[in-house]
Amino acid sequence: MNIDQLQGMCTKTINEIEKVFVTGDNSVIKKILCSFLAGGHILFEDNPGLGKTLLVKILAKITGCEWKRIQFTPDLMPSDILGTKIWKSSSSVFELEKGPIFTNFLLADEINRAMPKTQSALLEAMEERQVSIEGTTHTLKPPFIVMATQNPIEMEGTYPLPEAQMDRFMMKLSLGYLDNDEMECKVLKRRVSWKKDDPTIDMDPVITMEQILMLQKEVEKIFVDDNILMYITQIIRRTRENSSVRLGASPRGSLALLKLSRAHALISGRDYVVPDDVKFVAVDALAHRVILHVEHLLEGRIPTAVIKSIVNKIDVPCDYTRENTGGY
Question: Is 95 helix (H, G, I), strand (E, B) or coil?
Answer without folding.
Answer: strand
